[in-house]
Amino acid sequence: MTQVNLSKTVGVEDQTVGTPDPASTGSAVTANPEPAVPPPENPPLLLPAPVYPGGLDPAKLALFSEQMKQLEAELKNIFPEREHLVSQLVFALLSREHVLVHGVFGTGKSDLLSALYSCFETPTVFSIALNKFMSESHVIGVPNPKQMREEGVLNYQREGGILDAHLVELDEVLDANAPLLRVLLGILNERTFKRGRQIEKALLHTAVASTNGDPVAVVKSAPELGAVIDRFIFIAKVNYLESAESRRRMYAKFVSDQRPSVRISFDDLVAVSNLVCGTEIALDAEFLAVYDEVIQAYRKAYEKDQTVKISDRRACKLIKLVRASAAINGRSEVSFEDLYAVRWGLCVGNDRSQHETFMKVAKPIVDKAIEQKKQSFDEVCVQLLKKYESEIPTLDDKTPLSNDELVQLIRQVGALDKQIRDVKPQLPSNLDYQKKMRERLSALSAKLNDRLLPVK
Predict the structure, then answer these.
(1) Mean pLDDT estimate for the chain
(2) Considering the domain boundaries, does residue 260 fall inside one?
(3) Domain that holds residue 418
Protein backbone atom coordinates (compact mmCIF):
# COMPACT_ATOMS: atom_id res chain seq x y z
CA MET A 1 0.00 0.00 0.00
CA THR A 2 1.28 3.45 -0.81
CA GLN A 3 2.08 5.32 2.36
CA VAL A 4 1.45 9.06 2.40
CA ASN A 5 3.86 10.76 4.79
CA LEU A 6 3.18 13.95 6.66
CA SER A 7 5.04 17.08 5.62
CA LYS A 8 8.07 17.88 7.75
CA THR A 9 10.16 21.02 8.05
CA VAL A 10 13.78 20.22 7.32
CA GLY A 11 16.39 22.43 8.90
CA VAL A 12 19.44 23.62 6.95
CA GLU A 13 22.76 24.03 8.74
CA ASP A 14 25.36 26.48 7.48
CA GLN A 15 28.52 24.65 6.50
CA THR A 16 31.90 26.23 5.68
CA VAL A 17 34.13 24.20 3.42
CA GLY A 18 37.78 25.27 3.48
CA THR A 19 41.27 24.01 2.72
CA PRO A 20 42.82 22.03 5.58
CA ASP A 21 45.91 23.38 7.30
CA PRO A 22 48.81 20.93 6.80
CA ALA A 23 50.45 22.07 10.00
CA SER A 24 47.45 21.13 12.04
CA THR A 25 46.50 17.96 10.24
CA GLY A 26 49.91 16.53 9.43
CA SER A 27 48.64 15.35 6.08
CA ALA A 28 49.68 16.26 2.58
CA VAL A 29 47.74 18.86 0.66
CA THR A 30 46.79 18.10 -2.91
CA ALA A 31 48.19 20.33 -5.61
CA ASN A 32 44.74 21.40 -6.79
CA PRO A 33 42.44 21.55 -3.79
CA GLU A 34 38.74 21.99 -4.47
CA PRO A 35 37.69 25.62 -4.04
CA ALA A 36 35.60 26.55 -1.05
CA VAL A 37 31.90 26.71 -1.67
CA PRO A 38 30.67 30.17 -0.72
CA PRO A 39 27.41 30.43 1.19
CA PRO A 40 24.46 31.48 -0.97
CA GLU A 41 23.81 35.18 -1.10
CA ASN A 42 20.10 34.66 -0.54
CA PRO A 43 19.60 31.49 1.50
CA PRO A 44 16.23 29.78 0.89
CA LEU A 45 13.44 30.83 3.18
CA LEU A 46 12.22 27.86 5.24
CA LEU A 47 8.45 27.90 5.60
CA PRO A 48 6.81 26.06 8.52
CA ALA A 49 5.09 22.83 7.61
CA PRO A 50 1.31 23.18 7.35
CA VAL A 51 -0.61 22.00 10.37
CA TYR A 52 -3.52 19.68 9.58
CA PRO A 53 -6.23 18.41 11.95
CA GLY A 54 -4.96 15.32 13.72
CA GLY A 55 -1.67 15.58 11.81
CA LEU A 56 -3.39 14.25 8.66
CA ASP A 57 -2.98 16.05 5.38
CA PRO A 58 -6.01 15.99 3.03
CA ALA A 59 -4.36 13.54 0.61
CA LYS A 60 -3.72 11.00 3.36
CA LEU A 61 -7.25 11.36 4.70
CA ALA A 62 -8.72 11.01 1.20
CA LEU A 63 -6.69 7.84 0.55
CA PHE A 64 -7.79 6.30 3.82
CA SER A 65 -11.41 7.22 3.07
CA GLU A 66 -11.24 5.41 -0.29
CA GLN A 67 -9.71 2.33 1.32
CA MET A 68 -12.33 2.11 4.07
CA LYS A 69 -15.15 2.55 1.56
CA GLN A 70 -13.66 -0.22 -0.56
CA LEU A 71 -13.39 -2.47 2.51
CA GLU A 72 -17.01 -1.77 3.45
CA ALA A 73 -18.23 -2.47 -0.09
CA GLU A 74 -16.26 -5.74 -0.39
CA LEU A 75 -17.46 -7.05 2.97
CA LYS A 76 -21.08 -6.26 2.11
CA ASN A 77 -20.68 -8.13 -1.16
CA ILE A 78 -19.02 -11.17 0.41
CA PHE A 79 -21.40 -11.37 3.39
CA PRO A 80 -24.99 -10.86 2.17
CA GLU A 81 -27.67 -9.62 4.58
CA ARG A 82 -24.94 -8.31 6.88
CA GLU A 83 -24.86 -4.78 5.46
CA HIS A 84 -25.93 -3.08 8.69
CA LEU A 85 -23.43 -5.04 10.78
CA VAL A 86 -20.59 -4.18 8.37
CA SER A 87 -21.40 -0.47 8.64
CA GLN A 88 -21.42 -0.74 12.43
CA LEU A 89 -18.04 -2.50 12.42
CA VAL A 90 -16.52 0.22 10.24
CA PHE A 91 -17.80 2.99 12.51
CA ALA A 92 -16.61 1.06 15.58
CA LEU A 93 -13.08 0.93 14.18
CA LEU A 94 -13.11 4.63 13.36
CA SER A 95 -14.41 5.61 16.82
CA ARG A 96 -12.49 3.01 18.90
CA GLU A 97 -15.73 1.64 20.23
CA HIS A 98 -17.03 -1.91 20.63
CA VAL A 99 -19.67 -4.09 18.98
CA LEU A 100 -21.98 -6.69 20.50
CA VAL A 101 -23.36 -9.18 17.98
CA HIS A 102 -26.10 -11.57 19.03
CA GLY A 103 -28.15 -14.18 17.26
CA VAL A 104 -28.45 -17.87 16.61
CA PHE A 105 -25.36 -20.02 16.23
CA GLY A 106 -23.82 -20.72 12.84
CA THR A 107 -24.49 -17.33 11.24
CA GLY A 108 -20.89 -16.55 10.28
CA LYS A 109 -20.18 -14.01 13.00
CA SER A 110 -16.59 -15.16 13.55
CA ASP A 111 -15.98 -15.56 9.81
CA LEU A 112 -16.99 -11.98 9.12
CA LEU A 113 -14.82 -10.70 11.95
CA SER A 114 -11.83 -12.72 10.74
CA ALA A 115 -12.21 -11.28 7.24
CA LEU A 116 -12.41 -7.74 8.66
CA TYR A 117 -9.37 -8.03 10.92
CA SER A 118 -7.27 -9.63 8.16
CA CYS A 119 -7.54 -6.44 6.07
CA PHE A 120 -5.39 -4.44 8.49
CA GLU A 121 -1.62 -4.74 8.44
CA THR A 122 0.30 -5.54 11.64
CA PRO A 123 -2.26 -5.27 14.47
CA THR A 124 -2.16 -7.80 17.32
CA VAL A 125 -5.37 -9.84 17.55
CA PHE A 126 -6.67 -11.67 20.62
CA SER A 127 -9.57 -14.13 20.40
CA ILE A 128 -11.18 -16.23 23.12
CA ALA A 129 -14.43 -18.11 23.74
CA LEU A 130 -15.55 -17.37 27.28
CA ASN A 131 -17.40 -19.59 29.76
CA LYS A 132 -18.43 -19.35 33.40
CA PHE A 133 -15.44 -21.39 34.63
CA MET A 134 -12.80 -18.96 33.34
CA SER A 135 -10.91 -16.51 35.52
CA GLU A 136 -9.08 -13.30 34.67
CA SER A 137 -5.86 -15.23 34.13
CA HIS A 138 -7.42 -16.69 30.96
CA VAL A 139 -7.69 -13.26 29.37
CA ILE A 140 -4.95 -11.23 31.14
CA GLY A 141 -2.24 -13.86 31.54
CA VAL A 142 -1.02 -16.18 34.27
CA PRO A 143 0.44 -14.77 37.51
CA ASN A 144 4.21 -14.65 37.81
CA PRO A 145 5.04 -17.77 39.87
CA LYS A 146 8.43 -16.46 41.01
CA GLN A 147 6.93 -13.29 42.46
CA MET A 148 4.20 -15.30 44.14
CA ARG A 149 6.71 -17.70 45.67
CA GLU A 150 9.41 -15.22 46.72
CA GLU A 151 7.46 -12.02 47.39
CA GLY A 152 3.92 -13.23 47.95
CA VAL A 153 2.73 -10.77 45.27
CA LEU A 154 0.09 -11.63 42.68
CA ASN A 155 1.35 -10.02 39.47
CA TYR A 156 -0.15 -11.06 36.13
CA GLN A 157 2.09 -11.53 33.10
CA ARG A 158 0.42 -9.67 30.23
CA GLU A 159 2.38 -11.10 27.30
CA GLY A 160 0.05 -12.77 24.80
CA GLY A 161 -3.12 -11.69 26.60
CA ILE A 162 -5.87 -9.19 25.94
CA LEU A 163 -3.84 -6.23 27.25
CA ASP A 164 -1.32 -6.48 24.39
CA ALA A 165 -3.97 -6.84 21.68
CA HIS A 166 -5.26 -4.07 19.42
CA LEU A 167 -8.24 -5.97 18.02
CA VAL A 168 -10.19 -8.40 20.20
CA GLU A 169 -12.88 -11.04 19.68
CA LEU A 170 -14.84 -12.18 22.73
CA ASP A 171 -17.07 -15.11 21.88
CA GLU A 172 -20.02 -15.92 24.17
CA VAL A 173 -19.19 -12.90 26.30
CA LEU A 174 -22.35 -13.14 28.42
CA ASP A 175 -21.38 -16.67 29.50
CA ALA A 176 -18.48 -15.25 31.53
CA ASN A 177 -18.86 -15.10 35.31
CA ALA A 178 -19.46 -11.82 37.16
CA PRO A 179 -15.86 -11.26 38.42
CA LEU A 180 -14.43 -11.74 34.93
CA LEU A 181 -17.06 -9.43 33.41
CA ARG A 182 -16.08 -6.70 35.86
CA VAL A 183 -12.46 -7.06 34.73
CA LEU A 184 -13.53 -6.85 31.10
CA LEU A 185 -15.58 -3.72 31.86
CA GLY A 186 -12.46 -1.86 32.96
CA ILE A 187 -10.56 -2.94 29.88
CA LEU A 188 -13.35 -2.09 27.44
CA ASN A 189 -14.29 1.26 28.94
CA GLU A 190 -11.08 2.59 30.52
CA ARG A 191 -8.47 0.52 28.65
CA THR A 192 -7.03 -0.33 32.07
CA PHE A 193 -6.56 -3.47 34.17
CA LYS A 194 -6.35 -2.91 37.93
CA ARG A 195 -5.56 -5.59 40.45
CA GLY A 196 -4.13 -4.39 43.75
CA ARG A 197 -0.87 -2.57 43.10
CA GLN A 198 -0.72 -3.79 39.52
CA ILE A 199 -2.16 -1.28 37.04
CA GLU A 200 -1.74 -2.07 33.36
CA LYS A 201 -2.77 -0.03 30.35
CA ALA A 202 -4.44 -1.96 27.53
CA LEU A 203 -3.56 -1.39 23.87
CA LEU A 204 -7.14 -2.17 22.91
CA HIS A 205 -8.52 -0.38 19.86
CA THR A 206 -11.81 -2.19 19.25
CA ALA A 207 -13.45 -5.32 20.62
CA VAL A 208 -16.23 -7.33 19.01
CA ALA A 209 -18.18 -9.60 21.35
CA SER A 210 -20.74 -12.17 20.36
CA THR A 211 -23.40 -14.17 22.12
CA ASN A 212 -26.15 -16.54 21.11
CA GLY A 213 -28.48 -15.07 23.73
CA ASP A 214 -30.74 -12.04 23.43
CA PRO A 215 -29.25 -9.11 25.45
CA VAL A 216 -32.73 -7.79 26.30
CA ALA A 217 -33.77 -11.13 27.78
CA VAL A 218 -30.44 -11.46 29.57
CA VAL A 219 -30.81 -8.04 31.24
CA LYS A 220 -34.35 -8.91 32.37
CA SER A 221 -33.07 -12.02 34.14
CA ALA A 222 -29.82 -10.42 35.35
CA PRO A 223 -30.13 -6.59 35.57
CA GLU A 224 -26.51 -6.22 36.66
CA LEU A 225 -25.46 -7.17 33.11
CA GLY A 226 -27.06 -3.98 31.79
CA ALA A 227 -23.85 -2.08 32.58
CA VAL A 228 -21.87 -4.60 30.54
CA ILE A 229 -24.13 -4.30 27.51
CA ASP A 230 -24.13 -0.49 27.71
CA ARG A 231 -20.34 -0.56 27.11
CA PHE A 232 -21.07 -1.74 23.59
CA ILE A 233 -22.09 1.32 21.59
CA PHE A 234 -23.01 -0.87 18.63
CA ILE A 235 -25.45 -3.77 18.95
CA ALA A 236 -26.43 -5.99 16.04
CA LYS A 237 -28.61 -9.03 15.63
CA VAL A 238 -27.90 -11.65 12.96
CA ASN A 239 -30.16 -14.42 11.67
CA TYR A 240 -29.87 -17.16 9.09
CA LEU A 241 -29.94 -15.86 5.53
CA GLU A 242 -33.48 -15.41 4.25
CA SER A 243 -33.28 -15.04 0.46
CA ALA A 244 -32.20 -17.69 -2.03
CA GLU A 245 -29.89 -15.19 -3.74
CA SER A 246 -28.09 -14.51 -0.45
CA ARG A 247 -27.63 -18.22 0.16
CA ARG A 248 -26.21 -18.75 -3.34
CA ARG A 249 -23.71 -15.98 -2.71
CA MET A 250 -22.83 -17.59 0.64
CA TYR A 251 -22.16 -20.95 -1.06
CA ALA A 252 -20.01 -19.29 -3.73
CA LYS A 253 -18.02 -17.47 -1.09
CA PHE A 254 -17.50 -20.69 0.87
CA VAL A 255 -16.23 -22.81 -2.04
CA SER A 256 -13.90 -20.06 -3.30
CA ASP A 257 -12.80 -18.84 0.14
CA GLN A 258 -13.48 -15.29 -1.00
CA ARG A 259 -11.81 -12.56 1.06
CA PRO A 260 -11.53 -8.77 0.78
CA SER A 261 -8.63 -7.64 -1.40
CA VAL A 262 -7.98 -4.26 0.23
CA ARG A 263 -5.12 -3.87 2.70
CA ILE A 264 -5.02 -0.94 5.12
CA SER A 265 -2.22 0.15 7.40
CA PHE A 266 -3.30 -0.18 11.01
CA ASP A 267 -1.21 2.91 11.76
CA ASP A 268 -3.43 4.86 9.35
CA LEU A 269 -6.52 3.59 11.18
CA VAL A 270 -5.03 4.73 14.49
CA ALA A 271 -4.20 8.16 13.04
CA VAL A 272 -7.74 8.71 11.75
CA SER A 273 -9.32 7.39 14.95
CA ASN A 274 -7.14 9.88 16.86
CA LEU A 275 -8.77 12.57 14.76
CA VAL A 276 -12.25 11.16 15.43
CA CYS A 277 -11.70 10.77 19.18
CA GLY A 278 -9.78 14.02 19.64
CA THR A 279 -10.88 17.63 19.64
CA GLU A 280 -9.50 18.81 16.27
CA ILE A 281 -12.87 18.31 14.57
CA ALA A 282 -14.80 21.10 16.25
CA LEU A 283 -18.50 20.88 17.15
CA ASP A 284 -19.95 24.27 18.04
CA ALA A 285 -22.87 24.96 20.38
CA GLU A 286 -25.30 25.26 17.48
CA PHE A 287 -24.34 21.83 16.15
CA LEU A 288 -24.54 20.18 19.59
CA ALA A 289 -28.00 21.68 20.12
CA VAL A 290 -29.22 20.01 16.92
CA TYR A 291 -27.49 16.76 17.96
CA ASP A 292 -29.28 16.80 21.31
CA GLU A 293 -32.59 17.49 19.57
CA VAL A 294 -32.10 14.34 17.47
CA ILE A 295 -31.22 12.22 20.53
CA GLN A 296 -34.20 13.48 22.54
CA ALA A 297 -36.60 12.99 19.63
CA TYR A 298 -35.52 9.35 19.32
CA ARG A 299 -35.80 8.91 23.10
CA LYS A 300 -39.32 10.29 23.03
CA ALA A 301 -40.29 7.93 20.20
CA TYR A 302 -39.47 4.98 22.48
CA GLU A 303 -40.43 6.43 25.88
CA LYS A 304 -43.04 3.68 26.34
CA ASP A 305 -40.69 0.93 25.16
CA GLN A 306 -38.46 -0.19 28.01
CA THR A 307 -36.22 -2.20 25.66
CA VAL A 308 -34.76 0.97 24.08
CA LYS A 309 -32.78 3.06 26.54
CA ILE A 310 -30.16 5.72 25.84
CA SER A 311 -27.87 6.39 28.79
CA ASP A 312 -26.06 9.71 29.11
CA ARG A 313 -22.78 7.85 28.60
CA ARG A 314 -24.03 6.39 25.32
CA ALA A 315 -25.35 9.79 24.18
CA CYS A 316 -21.91 11.33 24.76
CA LYS A 317 -20.03 8.55 23.00
CA LEU A 318 -22.32 8.66 19.98
CA ILE A 319 -20.92 12.12 19.19
CA LYS A 320 -17.83 10.33 17.89
CA LEU A 321 -19.93 8.78 15.12
CA VAL A 322 -20.58 12.26 13.75
CA ARG A 323 -16.85 12.86 13.46
CA ALA A 324 -16.35 9.36 12.07
CA SER A 325 -18.88 10.09 9.33
CA ALA A 326 -16.88 13.16 8.33
CA ALA A 327 -13.62 11.19 8.35
CA ILE A 328 -14.88 8.30 6.23
CA ASN A 329 -16.06 10.87 3.69
CA GLY A 330 -12.60 12.42 3.58
CA ARG A 331 -13.49 15.54 5.55
CA SER A 332 -11.94 17.07 8.66
CA GLU A 333 -15.06 19.09 9.47
CA VAL A 334 -18.61 17.97 10.17
CA SER A 335 -21.86 18.82 8.45
CA PHE A 336 -25.43 18.37 9.66
CA GLU A 337 -25.80 15.36 7.33
CA ASP A 338 -23.23 13.54 9.49
CA LEU A 339 -25.88 13.33 12.23
CA TYR A 340 -27.49 10.46 10.32
CA ALA A 341 -24.50 8.27 11.30
CA VAL A 342 -25.71 8.32 14.91
CA ARG A 343 -28.30 5.69 13.98
CA TRP A 344 -25.61 3.00 13.82
CA GLY A 345 -25.21 3.34 17.59
CA LEU A 346 -28.81 4.15 18.48
CA CYS A 347 -30.50 1.36 16.52
CA VAL A 348 -29.99 -2.38 16.70
CA GLY A 349 -28.10 -3.25 13.53
CA ASN A 350 -30.70 -4.94 11.37
CA ASP A 351 -33.86 -3.74 13.14
CA ARG A 352 -35.58 -2.04 10.23
CA SER A 353 -38.31 -0.50 12.36
CA GLN A 354 -35.77 1.26 14.59
CA HIS A 355 -33.91 2.67 11.59
CA GLU A 356 -37.15 3.87 10.05
CA THR A 357 -38.17 5.51 13.33
CA PHE A 358 -34.81 7.24 13.58
CA MET A 359 -35.01 8.65 10.06
CA LYS A 360 -38.62 9.72 10.66
CA VAL A 361 -37.70 11.81 13.71
CA ALA A 362 -34.19 12.90 12.64
CA LYS A 363 -34.71 13.98 9.04
CA PRO A 364 -37.05 16.94 9.78
CA ILE A 365 -34.62 18.19 12.45
CA VAL A 366 -31.57 17.87 10.19
CA ASP A 367 -33.37 19.41 7.18
CA LYS A 368 -34.47 22.38 9.31
CA ALA A 369 -30.93 22.90 10.60
CA ILE A 370 -29.50 22.78 7.07
CA GLU A 371 -32.06 25.31 5.84
CA GLN A 372 -31.37 27.65 8.76
CA LYS A 373 -27.64 27.41 8.13
CA LYS A 374 -28.21 28.28 4.48
CA GLN A 375 -30.26 31.30 5.48
CA SER A 376 -27.67 32.40 8.03
CA PHE A 377 -24.87 31.93 5.52
CA ASP A 378 -26.84 33.72 2.83
CA GLU A 379 -27.37 36.70 5.10
CA VAL A 380 -23.61 37.20 5.11
CA CYS A 381 -23.50 36.65 1.34
CA VAL A 382 -26.19 39.28 0.76
CA GLN A 383 -24.30 41.79 2.88
CA LEU A 384 -21.22 41.19 0.74
CA LEU A 385 -23.18 41.49 -2.50
CA LYS A 386 -24.75 44.78 -1.36
CA LYS A 387 -21.32 46.11 -0.44
CA TYR A 388 -19.94 45.21 -3.86
CA GLU A 389 -23.04 46.66 -5.52
CA SER A 390 -22.37 50.01 -3.84
CA GLU A 391 -18.87 49.97 -5.35
CA ILE A 392 -20.06 49.60 -8.95
CA PRO A 393 -19.04 52.80 -10.74
CA THR A 394 -21.66 54.92 -12.44
CA LEU A 395 -21.03 55.95 -16.02
CA ASP A 396 -22.17 59.28 -17.44
CA ASP A 397 -22.23 59.09 -21.22
CA LYS A 398 -21.72 62.86 -21.50
CA THR A 399 -18.57 62.98 -19.36
CA PRO A 400 -15.45 62.63 -21.53
CA LEU A 401 -12.93 60.04 -20.31
CA SER A 402 -9.40 59.38 -21.48
CA ASN A 403 -8.28 55.93 -22.53
CA ASP A 404 -6.28 55.56 -19.29
CA GLU A 405 -9.36 56.40 -17.24
CA LEU A 406 -11.47 53.92 -19.24
CA VAL A 407 -8.88 51.15 -18.81
CA GLN A 408 -8.78 51.83 -15.06
CA LEU A 409 -12.59 51.55 -14.88
CA ILE A 410 -12.59 48.35 -16.92
CA ARG A 411 -10.09 46.81 -14.51
CA GLN A 412 -12.17 47.97 -11.54
CA VAL A 413 -15.28 46.36 -13.04
CA GLY A 414 -13.37 43.13 -13.69
CA ALA A 415 -12.11 42.97 -10.12
CA LEU A 416 -15.62 43.56 -8.78
CA ASP A 417 -17.01 40.82 -11.01
CA LYS A 418 -14.46 38.36 -9.63
CA GLN A 419 -15.32 39.30 -6.04
CA ILE A 420 -19.05 38.88 -6.72
CA ARG A 421 -18.45 35.56 -8.48
CA ASP A 422 -16.54 34.24 -5.44
CA VAL A 423 -19.55 34.80 -3.17
CA LYS A 424 -21.42 31.49 -2.85
CA PRO A 425 -25.06 32.07 -1.86
CA GLN A 426 -27.31 29.01 -1.67
CA LEU A 427 -30.86 30.32 -1.68
CA PRO A 428 -32.42 30.75 -5.17
CA SER A 429 -33.43 34.39 -4.58
CA ASN A 430 -29.88 35.36 -3.68
CA LEU A 431 -28.44 33.41 -6.59
CA ASP A 432 -30.73 35.43 -8.86
CA TYR A 433 -29.57 38.67 -7.19
CA GLN A 434 -25.94 37.68 -7.82
CA LYS A 435 -26.69 36.82 -11.45
CA LYS A 436 -28.31 40.21 -12.13
CA MET A 437 -25.34 42.02 -10.57
CA ARG A 438 -22.92 40.18 -12.84
CA GLU A 439 -25.10 40.91 -15.88
CA ARG A 440 -25.03 44.60 -14.93
CA LEU A 441 -21.23 44.52 -14.66
CA SER A 442 -20.94 42.74 -17.99
CA ALA A 443 -23.03 45.41 -19.70
CA LEU A 444 -21.00 48.17 -18.06
CA SER A 445 -17.73 46.55 -19.16
CA ALA A 446 -18.98 46.30 -22.75
CA LYS A 447 -20.00 49.98 -22.75
CA LEU A 448 -16.59 51.04 -21.42
CA ASN A 449 -14.81 48.99 -24.06
CA ASP A 450 -16.94 50.61 -26.77
CA ARG A 451 -15.76 54.07 -25.65
CA LEU A 452 -12.09 53.21 -25.88
CA LEU A 453 -10.47 55.29 -28.61
CA PRO A 454 -8.37 53.35 -31.13
CA VAL A 455 -4.65 53.76 -30.59
CA LYS A 456 -3.01 55.80 -33.40
Answers:
(1) 83
(2) no
(3) 381-451
